[in-house]
Amino acid sequence: MSNHQELSNFIWGICDDVLRGLFKPHEYGDVVLPFVVLRRLDCVLEPQKDKVHELFNQYKDKVKDPTPIILDKVGTIGRVSL
pLDDT (tens digit, 9 = 90+) per residue, 60-77? Predict the structure, then answer.
């Protein structure tokens, strides 16, 4: 994909093929946008994903909420806080 418009056309073309009949065309954005955001977050967090899973499994039975421990050990990735 060489530019933003090509990527946009590609995504909406998939919507026409896959979502047609399930959703009205004006509803596509309500379906696609959340998945695009989730995928982007998944890509940004991917380098730390295994460590987060490992830490969660290590502390899930020891403390009620292992989130602070995980955040302390993993920290932040770029400008995105975990």
Answer: 999 999 988 888 888 765
